[in-house]
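**Protein record**
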Amino acid sequence: MKGFMKGEFQPDLDSFFCLESASTTALTTVLLLGIIFSVIAAVHLGYTPEWKNDYEHSHMTSVWEDMTELKSKIDMTTVLLASDINSSTPKVTTTTTLHTRKLETPFISSTKSTGILSLNTDRCKMIITPANNSEMENAMENAMENAMENATVINCGTIAYNSNNNYYTEQTFKYENGALILEQNKKAVMKLYPSISVSEVSFRNYTFLINAVEIQGVANTISSNLDGSILLKGKSYETLYDSAISGNESSLLLTVYTDHPAAWKIYLNETMTEAGLEVDKDYALDRIGNNYVTYVFPEKGSDTSLKRLYVGKATINAELGIGLSGFVESKLNSK
């Protein structure tokens, strides 16, 4: 084989192989990127709703746990206020964080929603009317107008979270007068109960103990990508009515004005059944449209009697915030 003459072109084999390697690498990269974008497109088309549904379900579970903690703290505040009923100075302050923030999942559609946290934007009122049997008919006719002078009216207040989900079932969690209610698909169920106790103290003689909760605070709504917080300040506990002191009324009319009368009706019916009472025999229970539910004890012709009725109320002030900074800012602005 003849060698190359001086001045003739001599190919650089190392450079040739480097160029070929670079071209191969670039082509491979393009192909890989094409595969990756194809996979992402497939995920968007077929799997994103399932992933989003699972995430929103997990998020709702977390918020529900926060709402149960909120109820627990309100219950504890009520107990502490009742144990020091003569004190007019609020001594109980606590904060509950609600994980309302919804995180985005990488490489998944950026479409997201934020839940809505609200305070005292929904209706809730409880009216308790003790009466003699002869007065009960008139009390029932005027239940919502509060015509009876001795009626006890409690403006319960509400704290609610609306999920505003895109994929998982739309849900609303609401606290009102000691109850925690779950609403979905236009149906509501009371998951945690208020403090209403009914017991048979002697044969066919019953005692009713009602510890109501009034949530005060300026009506407000928060929708944010950050977690929300609720500041609770216990104000007072007071006895509103005690038949052992105030009188000898023999009948009770209880009216609950709420967005969820069906849930309250089911709860009241279950409570009475557990106490050994029968509907339409010992007590009357009716749901009036979508507005309120009424309960009457004892029913006409029943051999039961009202031995004692006690009604107490805890008053708690609530304030919504975003994280903890919202509370700090509100305190600074109030100075």
Q: What stands out?
A: Residues 62-333 form one domain.
